[in-house]
Amino acid sequence: MPTMTTALQVLGLLLISLIVGSMFGIWGGYNPATFSPATFVEVHQGAVRGLNVLLPSMGLACILVAVTLAWLGRGMPQSRWLYIAAAVGMVAAALITRFGNQPINAVIMTWGAVPPDGWQMFRDTWWKWHQARLAAGFSGELLLIAAIFTHRG
């Protein structure tokens, strides 16, 4: 039977992999600069409706798991600090989402099929924030993997 630590490690890896995988998929497959104005609005609004609650909820759970693993690893300083660093990367991604992407999402959700003049500024700013949160999330994932290997090694 797996220990609580092992179960939390698996849960943490699953959650962060789904989150960062989603961010990576958006980055790799949905560059909004390639969309027509109407397509941009439709795709963006659909993504917000589908992901705006799900991914932040999963992110919070993942942060809590990493913090719990840091507490459980308190006798192992190297893995403990890696868990803390992973949580910091995840918190950075969450803060970027909350204060960078979500305010722009809220504006875009008010648009009709034809965006207003100057809409490209919102698109481009959102994309820069998305790239920053992908980097933070990916860093958090790598640090979580390193923490687990160190903890188990």
Outline of the structure:
By secondary structure, this protein is mainly α.
Structural account:
The protein is mostly helical and 153 residues long. It has one domain. It is built from 5 helices and no strands. Helix 1 (4-29) runs antiparallel to helix 3 (54-72), helix 3 packs antiparallel against helix 4 and helix 4 (77-108) runs antiparallel to helix 5. The longest helix is centred in the last third of the chain and has 34 residues, at 119-152. It is elongated.
The helix/strand class is mainly alpha
Radius of gyration: 18 Å
Q: Please, how many helices?
A: 5
Number of strands: 0
For the sheet with most strands, the description reads: none
Percent of residues in beta strands?
Answer: under 5%
How far from one another are the termini?
Answer: 19 Å
Q: What sequence of helices (H) and strands (E) makes up the elements?
A: HHHHH
| Broad shape | elongated
Domain unit count: 1
Low-confidence stretches: none
Features:
153 residues; mainly alpha; single chain
Give the SSE layout.
Layout lengths: L3 H26 L7 H15 L2 H19 L4 H32 L10 H34 L1
Helix pairs in contact: 1-3, 1-5, 3-4, 4-5
